[in-house]
Amino acid sequence: MSGGTNRREDMLINTILEIDKRKADLEAVKEEVAVLERNIAALKPNEQRALELFYIIGERHAAERLANEIGYSEPQAYRIKATAVENLARRLYGRVLI
Questions:
Q1: What DSSP letter does each residue of 22-56 carry, written as one string?
Q2: Three-state DSSP state, 44
Q3: How many other C-beta atoms are found inside a 10 Å radius of the C-beta of residue 98?
Q4: End-to-end CA distance of the chain
Q5: What does the pLDDT read at residue 1?
Q6: Backbone conformation region of residue 9, classed left if phi is above 0, alpha if psi is from -120 to 50, else beta
Q7: Rounded-to-integer distance, Cα 40 and Cα 21, Å
Q8: What share of the chain has pLDDT > 90, as a percent?
């Protein structure tokens, strides 16, 4: 064998490079999650709960459950969700385009 690499070495190098790329991707996602968590934590408790039920948990009857938990009507629960999304967007992006 002369100074080049063989197929096995190439596969190992490619695997190492892929692992490094995935580690970097994971760190970037962790940072994005941390930013999102900090911004959600800055919202009002009802808004936090609305985002949790509608988007994080994906509750099938999120509006009904939120309304029952906070003692409001379902239409009001939808308004809280909309306000939560708008406020989160403002925190993340500085403004909301409607």
A1: HHHHHHHHHHHHHHHHHHHHTS-HHHHHHHIIIII
A2: coil
A3: 5
A4: 65
A5: 47
A6: alpha
A7: 29
A8: 89
